[in-house]
Inverse folding.
């Protein structure tokens, strides 16, 4: 039996023989959950680059990310803790902590909160139905922001998550590795419509492509993708299929969790279609809302199939610091140079290195 491993939804077979990427977790914003997963007063567990966190939503609706273990005597907040108003209460001795991480209450009569009882509050942003948390290897504050893509044209994303044994840099390299599009995803006629541009933490490029002929030689539609990578944890592709007048916004997001593992979130928002009969004539007979749901589900399925085609590569490859690049690979070397900025320790060092 080979050592190859394949990811499936939320599970992964641990393979001790697979080589681990030697790069540390990049400093970036990462999606830790989606807004709808964080219900009012709910507490959920997440791991970010080896750090145990709990996320919760206060009564007023503010999303929070804090260290999972209480600074009093180390209990886990999600082992019976509660959100009480704007505070979170630890289950062990019922100390309460506010949104700054300060202990504001103990149940002991006449006892002020001990001065050292302060928890770490992680920088968090909530945009477009996604909850982002900033990771920096030395705990430095964020020196850039993820864009807020909120607009009325695109509805809130639908999403699906997977656990994969890989590293965000290896995973995001896919966005510029045009060579694998033919071999792995069966895309043909790949064209670079706009070459890679770099602006600080943003890398963007635009491609046009078409899937190789399907069964019985059926023609598949030409599609264009404008890719935006914001650091190593957030990205979106504006996808267009001109033949169908279809516009989608697709996120394929990596979040480093435990050492050598990451969570991938596939999140898709589809703009309501004007002329669904362009996809299939029978679609004009169905109510618009149904058509939207059907096409969205079909598009999501297609994206998931594409994503899963990469899993065996990511989970079994080794990281080569000096790869033997060929001309047809796409701008992999440029991507790697850009990626270096996410490993410097402080913003000042980043500026000096630029
Ligand atoms: S360990 Fe949390 S209140 Fe004591
Ligand atoms: Fe890929």
């Amino acid at each position: 039996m080979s050592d190859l491993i394949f990811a499936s939804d939320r599970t992964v077979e641990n393979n001790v023989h697979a080589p681990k990427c030697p790069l540390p977790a990049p400093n970036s914003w990462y999606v830790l959950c989606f807004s709808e997963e964080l219900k009012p007063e709910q507490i959920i567990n997440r791991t970010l680059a080896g750090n145990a966190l709990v996320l919760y939503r206060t009564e007023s609706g503010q999303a929070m990310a804090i260290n999972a273990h209480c600074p009093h005597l180390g209990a886990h907040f999600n082992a019976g803790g509660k959100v009480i108003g704007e505070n979170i209460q630890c289950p062990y001795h019922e100390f309460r902590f506010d949104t700054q991480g300060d202990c504001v209450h103990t149940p002991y009569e006449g006892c002020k909160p001990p001065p050292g009882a302060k928890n770490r509050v992680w920088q968090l942003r909530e945009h477009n139905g996604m909850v982002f948390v900033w990771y920096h290897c030395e705990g430095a504050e964020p020196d850039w922001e993820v864009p807020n893509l909120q607009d009325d044209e695109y509805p809130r994303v639908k999403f699906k998550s997977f656990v994969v044994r890989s590293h965000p840099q290896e995973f995001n390299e896919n966005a510029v590795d045009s060579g694998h599009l033919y071999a792995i995803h069966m895309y043909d006629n790949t064209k670079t419509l706009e070459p890679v541009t770099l602006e600080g933490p943003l890398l963007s490029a635009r491609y046009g492509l078409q899937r190789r002929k399907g069964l019985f030689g059926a023609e598949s539609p030409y599609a264009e993708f404008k890719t935006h990578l914001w650091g190593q944890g957030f990205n979106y592709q504006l996808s267009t299929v001109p033949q169908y007048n279809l516009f989608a916004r697709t996120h394929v997001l990596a979040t480093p969790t435990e050492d050598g593992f990451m969570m991938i979130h596939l999140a898709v928002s589809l703009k309501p279609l004007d002329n669904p009969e362009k996809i299939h004539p029978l679609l004009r007979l169905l109510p618009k809302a149904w058509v939207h749901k059907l096409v969205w589900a079909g598009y999501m399925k297609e994206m998931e199939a594409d994503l899963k085609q990469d899993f065996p590569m990511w989970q079994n490859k080794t990281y080569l610091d000096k790869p033997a690049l060929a001309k047809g690979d796409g701008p992999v070397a440029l991507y790697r140079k850009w990626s270096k900025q996410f490993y410097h320790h402080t913003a000042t060092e980043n500026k000096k290195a630029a």
Q: What stands out?
A: DSSP finds five helices and 17 strands in the chain. Helices lie at 168-172, 180-183, 288-316, 332-339, 347-353. Residues 1-6, 8-14 have pLDDT under 50 and may be disordered.
